[in-house]
Write a structure and sequence with these properties.
275 residues; 13 helices; binds heme C
């Protein structure tokens, strides 16, 4: 009987070891945070379910990216020596997220929300974005339901309107770049310029100042029209190259025709296709 148990144990162990080695090789060994928390149930498992649907999972910001700790070792996982920080207090949240989103945190800290948060309960990162189910952000987050929980909607609406037209232009230019990207002309420089302009305007959203946003909008719109000019020049160049290519192939057809005609008229049939 004993040897049977020993054999089964041996088989299970070797199966697990092979699986772990294979996972390690593929670089996707599951973190111990997720292994343990998904079995805990209730409010301790919920973060795993929510994080699974988040942009952070998609981009590789795992539990330990935010909470610290050692995701490779069950015993050490939540110890202070492994840098575990646990759950942040309400007023610590901007620094907690700002570790990675440095520019956003700086701008948030300058905003009415950031300045008054400790006294007024104004929103922090998590109030607007959620904590574990964080999605790609867009102006849709500024809406009547989200923003009228604490005050009127007139200022939020102004901010949204100011940003919306610039966002629309950014989307149009991105689509144009996609269209010309396959061509032989290098689009890297315009892409970088558009990306920088996009980030500059989106950085100031968190300042919540209509004046600051409008000032940045003026600069950004100038950058965008320069991107537009560059793209128009690229489109022109592509059209020119197309015309040259068509011209060249027409010329080839014509020359070939002339040669064949010449051979048919002046050579004997058995020599028509000899080079
Ligand atoms: C062996 C099981 C186990 C592992 C592994 C584990 N946890 Fe936990 N975790 C728990 C339990 C149980 C609690 C609730 C009791 C407590 O706070 O100690 C908890 C609580 C937490 C809390 C809330 C703490 C608070 O201040 O309320 C956070 C955040 C957390 N874990 C994150 C992590 C992260 C990140 C990892 C991986 C680096 C991890 N856990 C690994 C079992 C585990
Ligand atoms: C983007 C950063 C971020 C990531 C990634 C993240 N958390 Fe959290 N987590 C937070 C914040 C912020 C809080 C505290 C929110 C609050 O107080 O409302 C929190 C709270 C918790 C709590 C306490 C819940 C409670 O209600 O007391 C647990 C447990 C937890 N996280 C576990 C995890 C686990 C497990 C993972 C990985 C699957 C994870 N977290 C990934 C930011 C994060
Ligand atoms: C360990 C680094 C890290 C921490 C800490 C972190 N994030 Fe992120 N976050 C990322 C990365 C990486 C991305 C994906 C790249 C990007 O879009 O910036 C991302 C993306 C985001 C996005 C989507 C951005 C977009 O392009 O629309 C939001 C919103 C966000 N994080 C909010 C938060 C909030 C709120 C917290 C705190 C609860 C937080 N992050 C903590 C690394 C982090
Ligand atoms: C009042 C609500 C609100 C608060 C508070 C807030 N955000 Fe945002 N956040 C937004 C909105 C709306 C957008 C989308 C508009 C934009 O990107 O300009 C956004 C966009 C983002 C982005 C994407 C930026 C980009 O370049 O696309 C990140 C990252 C982010 N927020 C992180 C944070 C962090 C970290 C904090 C806390 C320090 C925070 N947010 C606080 C509303 C908020
Ligand atoms: C949890 C409460 C809360 C939520 C939710 C909230 N705010 Fe606020 N907001 C405040 C507080 C508190 C102030 C400080 C000034 C005040 O009392 O009006 C403020 C002020 C502002 C101001 C400055 C007003 C001024 O007179 O200069 C703007 C702009 C603003 N919020 C935008 C937003 C936007 C956009 C949203 C939604 C994405 C939002 N807020 C959601 C609490 C909130």
């Amino acid at each position: 009987m004993r040897w049977k148990i020993a054999l089964i144990l041996f088989l299970i162990l070797s199966f697990n070891t092979t699986r772990a080695l294979a996972q390690q090789k593929e670089g996707k060994i599951e973190s111990v945070c997720i292994q343990c928390h998904s079995q805990l149930g209730g409010k301790f498992a919920e973060p795993v379910e929510q994080w699974n649907k988040s942009i952070h999972k998609e981009m590789g910001n795992n539990c330990e990216g935010c909470h610290g700790g050692d995701a490779t070792d069950m015993g050490r996982a939540m110890t202070t020596e492994a840098g575990f920080r646990g759950k942040p207090k309400l007023l610590e949240i901007p620094d907690f997220c700002g570790k990675c989103h440095i520019g956003v945190k700086e701008n948030y800290s300058k905003s009415v929300h950031g300045i008054t948060a400790s006294k007024t309960g104004a929103p922090n990162c998590v109030t607007c974005h959620g904590k574990h189910d964080i999605k790609k952000a867009s102006l849709e987050l500024i809406n009547e339901k989200n923003c009228t929980r604490c005050h009127t909607y007139d200022k939020p609406q102004k901010i949204k309107q100011a940003l919306a037209s610039t966002d629309k232009e950014i989307a149009r230019l991105s689509a144009l770049i996609k269209d010309v990207k396959g061509s032989s002309i290098d689009t890297k420089r315009v892409e970088e310029k558009l990306f920088a302009a996009r980030n500059a305007i989106h950085q100031v959203t968190h300042v919540l100042s209509v004046n600051r946003i409008n000032a940045m909008k003026a600069t950004t719109d100038k950058e965008l029209s320069s991107v537009d000019e560059s793209l128009k020049a690229i489109e022109k160049e592509i059209a020119k190259r197309k015309r040259i290519a068509i011209g060249a192939s027409l010329f080839c057809f014509f020359t070939a025709g002339v040669i064949i005609l010449y051979r048919k008229i002046f050579l004997k049939p058995e020599n028509w296709f000899k080079v």
